[in-house]
Amino acid sequence: MMPRTNYLILVLLLVFNCNNKERREQSPVVTVSLKYYGNGNLKYEVELADTVPHGIFKEYYSNGQIKTKGRYVNGKLDGTALCYYLDEKIKCVELYSNNLLNGESIYYYDNGNVEYKGKFYDGKKVGVHYEYFKERNDAIKSRMEYVIVGSKNLLNSMTEYSIEGMTVKQTTNLKTTKNQNELIIEVREKEFDDIAVVICDYDLLFNLDSLNSCDTTYSQNRHSISIPFNVGDTVRGIIVNYEWISDNQTVSKDIYFIYPNPW
Prior knowledge:
Order of helices and strands: HEEEEEEEEEEEEEEEEEEEEE
Shape: elongated
Largest sheet: 14 strands, antiparallel
């Protein structure tokens, strides 16, 4: 008869070996994929889990200097990715989620000054983006404001500046001004006669569950509308520029807006 202590040891060993086998079967095989330049220097390296990129990746210039580095999660870019100039100065800082730009990305000139920055949502530009002069890090070259409408990425406004800060060119379609308990919306589309503002319970991407949640206000002075607005409110809507062609026909153009901009 087997002693009780030996029997327990045998059972524990069997359980341990079975658990180890299950873990080995479930755990992916981790390897590193390497690619090289013709001169023998490393060009690219990435961690793989069962042949799928999963982990740190690095890309190099032909002289061996780091060019790009970031991280994959299950074959998709995730987290912060950095890119570099040949002298190893930072060229860009990008944020990824699910293989798409999500969050603020910043791009730099080779002198270290910021060249461009702005936020992205699922790979699309959103909110206010800035471009800067190379010579002066505090001098804005252009300001762009974007909205996302469904799958579309729309540029709502753009202003270009001189290095001294003077406005050079303005293609702003609308201007919003807070005045006590009202929001004044002005539209600069001179080719249209009048405007109407449709305020709805849109989400951040201008999706709408029901038209019953919409209110329409028509302009009383052609290109400007005032609507009630209190501190803490968020207004999402469509500005419809329209021109009467006949009694039963109009030509229109829509501008989507959010105030204040949450991005």
